[in-house]
Amino acid sequence: MEITSAEFVISNTDVKKCPPGIFPEYAFIGRSNVGKSSLINMMTGRKGLAMTSATPGKTMLINHFLINKSWYIVDLPGYGYARRGQKGKSQIQRIIEDYILEREQMTNLFVLIDSRLDPQVIDIEFMGWLGEHGIPFSIVFTKGDKLKGGRLNSNIQQYLKKLKEQWEELPPYFVTSSENRMGKKELLDYIESINKELNTK
């Protein structure tokens, strides 16, 4: 699938103010600094579409981008940024939970994981919470260009092994790099296949 148009539509903190209509939404979430904005910009081929920030945790809003006038990329706030106060953290958590649990148009949630890191408790717990609520999600390993040789593959296998302690069946996963566009085609093809399935229902 080619992305021919991508436009910013709205930012808000209230799921009830998200765009009306029935277009499918593909939401992206991850810990602060996992490379979410860069990934969205890479996927859409538009450098400044999602704001990238040197300060982690800047996104405190639900951001909707209309793609090809037929589906949305949704940029959700990053979770687990340590320097934010408790009030800010619980506000972000509420925004995330409200969107994930209440937004009927949300078709799939992409959980972003930094491929360089060992499995982080916060990510494992978050995916467990998604599983408990029956939320369809996929894993996107980011920064795949940062590891050389077999390190990337062994890191990912280690991660999947950790997940298998909790999950009988693993969710789909993708390995990406915003620097060299690794994984772009696979992600877009996956979204396209879901969109086609929805259209036949």
Automatic annotation (TrEMBL):
PROSITE patterns: G_ENGB (PS51706)
A GO term for molecular function: metal ion binding
One GO BP: division septum assembly
CDD domains registered for this protein in UniProt: YihA_EngB (cd01876)
One Pfam short name: MMR_HSR1
Source superkingdom: Bacteria
EngB-type G domain mapped to chain residues: 22-197
Function: Necessary for normal cell division and for the maintenance of normal septation.
HAMAP family in alphabetical order: GTPase_EngB
Recorded family membership: Belongs to the TRAFAC class TrmE-Era-EngA-EngB-Septin-like GTPase superfamily. EngB GTPase family.
Name of the protein in question: Probable GTP-binding protein EngB
Gene this chain is encoded by: engB
